[in-house]
Amino acid sequence: MKKNIPRFVVIGLLVIVIIVVILVKNRSGRNTKSRQIISSSVLDTSKTAFLEENGKTVRLSKGVLAIVNNSQIRESYLNERYETLPEKHKQMYKNAREDFLEQLIVRELLYQEAQKMGFGKDLNSIGDVEQKKDMMLQKLIENISGNITVPEEEMRDFYKDHISDMKGASFEQVKEDVRKYIYNQEQTKIVNSTIETLKAEAEIVKNEDWIKEQQALKPENPLDTALTNGKPTIVDMGASSCIPCKMMKPIFAELEEEYKGKANILLLEISEYRGLAQKYQVMVIPTQLFFDKDGKQYWRHQGFLAKDEIVKKLQELGVK
Q: Which option is the CATH number for 9-216: 2.60.40.10, 3.90.550.10, 1.10.10.10, 1.10.4030.10?
């Protein structure tokens, strides 16, 4: 579901990361019905994956990447959907096919929920199955976010809190953009909550062998490496097309030089490290994450962050 990014606010405020579906938190560990795949390389040379639960064995046929409430997601389907993505999203998932599988699992869960709620009854004339699914998902998301309201007082408070980012624009000039931004934020929370509930109630089986193979193809993760070297770390996750992100680049270049050997200063393109974005729930860009010398997250900030504020946080972490 697409939303317009605010015209004025985008200059100095946070930018919502638009992906194939509404932002999803990858928390498979919270799934109360999650089940463990037994390594197919041990049990079967044909690479058929097996799953065992309560003494029962479930078979994932060759080419099946996941089963979502008895509905299969095959590798051929994943490849077909990948080819339909815009080029920028193809690049995003190029080295993260397992993350794309997660998106397809969520899409299937939402589609099944839309079916239960009867949102496909008036769409029988739609011959394209995927188009029909997309229309049903649109109806579902509109339904679960239909009660969102954005009071003018909340918009005015937001405007006051970010007055320095408005570049002289009056409240009336950016009012509609601010409303859309707050609406998008609230809608994301509601959709994420719905997704988490669906995941917890679902029977989801994943082909862990395939997932491990995909993870092995990923480029080295600089953040995980930095978090193990005993130094405080700050990472900025953004995009080259984001104006506030561009403003962070020269600041991080200076910090990297000034704190060389004292702290890890990382500037990462979110499209290249979507797994990290999901892991640390980066929902807007740029986002700065601060970690102590033991690798524990200390503080986080969304949007442009001035150099002196970064320095203060590094000093709090013991960096001189």
A: 1.10.4030.10
Q: What is the pLDDT of residues 175-187, one digit of tens each?
A: 999 999 899 889 9
Q: Is 187 a catalytic residue?
A: no
* Cα(139)–Cα(178) distance, integer angstroms: 24
Distance of CA 53 to the CA centre of its chain: 30
Residue of 16, 226, 242, 305 with catalytic role: 242
Count CB neighbours of 162 within 10 A: 17
Choosing from 140, 245, 255, 267, which is the catalytic residue? 245
Residue 161's pLDDT band (boundaries 50, 70, 90)? Answer: confident
Domain spans, the chain: 9-216, 222-316
pTM above 0.85, yes or no: no
147 annotated active-site? no
Tell me if the domain spanning 222-316 has CATH number 3.40.30.10: yes
Which residues, in sequence order, are CB contacts of 42 under 8 Å at separation 6+?
Answer: none
Do the Cβ atoms of 234 and 290 come closer than 8 Å?
yes
